[in-house]
Amino acid sequence: MVYAADYAATLQEPVDYGWGKCSSHFHWQQFRVKRDQELERLRQVQQQMLQQAGVQLLKGHTQFLDAHTLSVAGQKYTADKILIAVGGKPIKPNIPGIEQTITSDQLLNLEQLPERIVIIGGGYIGVEFASILKGFGCDVTLMNREACILEGFDDDLQNAAREGFMQRGIQSLCNTTANEIKQTSEGLGLHLTGSVQKRSLQM
Fold first, then answer.
1. Which of 62, 83, 182, 189 is the most exposed place for a label (fewest CB within 10 A)?
2. For residue range 50-70, what is the model confidence (pLDDT) as tens digits?
3. In Å, how far are 30, 58, 66, 84 from 75, measured between CA atoms?
4. Cβ distance 128 to 135 under 8 Å?
């Protein structure tokens, strides 16, 4: 998705070399099909590599029987060391009206891209999606309740990322909290507090 979104900037570069401005439109549904086909291909490749390396892949719910024993579908497996690497799922914050929103996982399966979108959360996943969606032609606003973006990362990296956002027209709201989300005739409206003082944001 990052690679596909980068073409938006690439298509503007010929103008600097005397070419006429390129006219383009991103076909989200066509891209989704290709993306999902590639993901499935990669899954199969990874499974084959695991099999060739002699790794046994077990699918199912598991539970610890003791510090060194797991049960999977009624079968016991014992090991000296057990590494838990189950990944994670996005969690929606406890905000009135949050049920009207989608997570980053759900965004991947949208039938069409939104014209405008607000991203709540300025971590690396939020920053990455903001950049991708802007490349796809969406009007993007990203807000974070603490630092501007990428809290915990190096200050120079934070500043460079935010400057890049500004140059690309991505609005980032620092120290801003969404207190309520309401459906309006024009879309979803967010009531915000923080550095923006009190205001409403329409999406």
1. 83
2. 999 999 999 889 999 999 999
3. 43, 10, 14, 18
4. no
Distances (CA, A) of 69 to 60, 82, 84: 15, 9, 13
Per the CB < 8 A criterion, the answer to whether 83 and 105 are in contact is: no
What does the block give as tokens for 97? Answer: 């009206």
Reported pTM: 0.83
Separation between Cα atoms, residue 167 and residue 150, nearest integer Å: 17
As a whole number of angstroms, the distance between CA 174 and CA 196 comes to 8
44-82 burial code (b ≥16 CB/10 A, e <16): eeeeeeeeeeeeeeeeeeeeeeeeeebeeeeeeeeeeee
User: What's the Cα-to-Cα distance from 97 to each of 1, 178, 203, rounded to whole Å?
Assistant: 29, 10, 14
For residues 117 and 140, the answer to whether their CB atoms sit within 8 Å is yes
Q: For residue 34, what is the enclosing H or E element?
A: helix 28-52
The contacts of residue 74 (CB under 8 Å, 6+ apart) are none
> What secondary structure does DSSP assign to 92-132, as a single string?
----TTGGGS--HHHHTT-SS--SEEEEE--SHHHHHHHHH
